[in-house]
Amino acid sequence: MADFNLGNPVFATYVVAACLMILKAVAMSWLTVVRMVGANGGFRNPEDMKKTPMNPNPHANQTAPNESVERIRRIHLNVLENVPFFLAAGLLYVTTQPDLWLAQLLFYGYVVSRLLHFIAYITAQIHEIRATFWTVGSVIILYMTGATLVKALGY
Question: What is the fold, at CATH topology level, of the domain defined by 9-152?
Answer without folding.
Answer: Four Helix Bundle (Hemerythrin (Met), subunit A) (1.20.120)
